[in-house]
Amino acid sequence: MSLQDRIINQFTDSLQTQQDAMNYLTDLIAYASERLVAALLNDKKIIACGNGRAANNAQLLSSTLLHRFERERPSLPALALSTDMTTITAIANESHFDDVFAKQLRALGQSGDMLVVYSDCGFSGNIVKAVHCAHDKEISVIALTGRDGGAIAAQLNEKDLELRVPSNSSARIHEVHSLISHCFCDLIDHQLFGG
Length: 195
What we know:
Layout (H helix, E strand, L loop, with lengths): L2 H39 L4 E5 L2 H14 L11 E3 L4 H10 L7 H7 L5 E5 L6 H12 L3 E6 L4 H6 L5 E4 L5 H24 L2
Helix pairs in contact: 1-7, 2-7, 4-5
């Protein structure tokens, strides 16, 4: 297979996964955006976390809400728990890596906030622990997952939402998670600021 054919296969696979996700997740993405907007209108914040490439998506969501998406507008309260390396490495070194998000969430999260978690595999112990902590603090969870949802999906309750990308490919899942994050930002801006 030529390099060009490999490139075409990557694009084709990505487009097919996006099409499948669009067909399967559109209503859930819209509903999740309404839940995020409701939290913001109640003076609550959006907290996001993920590991590795998923941490990039968590940071993408929080930075876009704090700064801007496609237009100027007031900053929105959002926080990524995966960005403070000093805190993360201190918790991981002196406690356990599974505590890196839950410990921050215990200190920074408030009832009514929304936690958005990103995981392609659904088996990240620190994400599972963050979901438990969210429930303890009456924080609802929006879980962006893939594959079969893993242990994270099993921990969600009736107030939570799972947006599971219909794919087993980590690359495709992360691409769609990024697109869903952009959808969230667009829908939040539209609902809060019109146009």
